[in-house]
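Bench notes, afternoon.
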Amino acid sequence: RDSVASRGLGDVYKRQIPGTGTIITVKGKPQGEPFKEPEFFNALLGIWLGNAPADWKLKDALLGKTAQSPS
């Protein structure tokens, strides 16, 4: 059985499906062809969950933490 990693924000979701790739959907409809490289999924998540996220408050909220920013 394939495992699926999925992260979403509003109506936009990114799913990494082994053997298929990263699929981006908007309001449940796939947008374009899958990105085959797993590195793309990791880089995309890094925008929000990486060591230097675009928005620390959003990262903390996604992880269920009290908002904190780096010192």
